Amino acid sequence: MAVTRSTIRDEALRLRALFEAAGAQVMDPPVLQPAGILLDLYGEDIRARAYVTSDAVRGEQMLRPDFTVPVVQTHMAHGAEPARYTYAGEVFRRQEDFPDRDNEYFQTGYEVFDRADPAAADAEVFALIREALGDLPLRAATGDIGILAAAVEGLETTSARKAALRRHIWRPRRFRALLDRYAGRAPVPETRSALLASADPLADCAPLIGLRDRTEIAARVEALRADAAAPPISENEVALLDAILSVRETLPFALEHLRDISVDMPAIAPAVARLEARVDALAARGIPVDTLEFEASFGRTSMEYYDGFVFGFYAAGRSDLPPLATGGRYDALTRVLGQGAEIPAVGGVIRPGLLLGLRTAS
Fold first, then answer.
1. Are residues 253 and 114 in the same domain?
2. Looking at the chain, which terminus has fewer C-beta neighbours within 10 angstroms, N or C?
3. CA dist 171 → 3, 79, 156, 177 (Å)
4. Same domain, 166 and 142
5. DSSP assignment, residue 26?
């Protein structure tokens, strides 16, 4: 059978029906989404990945880059607890770095909003996605952004440095550059050194151009001076962070390794306990946890709003393909979009076009 737009749509709807049968309510968010919300969440970086247009009445709009944000918005405004949602439709992503990849494709997803038992909800989403993918030869990978975030929060350094590291968890190169600088392993950029050495930076700087006024610039200079005066992050703490980032084993061994690290870094102990509860919940769902991969760095380059459990399913032997399915936990996103309200949430999406393509090829 040829894989066409029509057959992909049919597959997307078939998958959605599976999630409906599991108790999910169907949602159909508009294709055009307000750009302001997405820019607030991801910053200007998202412009490189999304299609942006302008409307005289509604302002900047984006072609839907994913479903999770509008689903969370709708739930936080009108949803009851607990809730399960499913959807099927197209998303749009610019692909300048990967011109051979589709910039418009179908997704089908399943989202759970439930505060009763987060570990059980994680396992529910993972198991349902796995079941929906069928018996294709796939490799499953898991991780937990929350462990690294907890490690950063536990560092003995300034709140400003911790905030910067947290912000760049999803940008590994920037994260490493900041960590090396804060640990004294890398020098302060030359331009910044000159600025900090100046007795009157505002008098020595070029004419003011841009949106910041002198008061804002002065405050920024003082913040940079305070950072320069802060003691470096210790070599021991950097070594513990590196040990966390290097964990890449099957789940039982990864859990044992992280327990050992938590003895020297107690700040990650609650996150490790959540991982242990998730392992038990996955096993209760019939998932073979003894062979399931865990990588502490998994999801750091592509899952910006996830803050806990993350997972992906990949075609075995096809490193040229993007993942067939991805997902994870995004509790913090509900706090941001809930304007003070929050609820633990986890979800995942499948790419039916990739699924059909693999079935046809096998």
1. yes
2. N
3. 35, 33, 22, 10
4. no
5. E
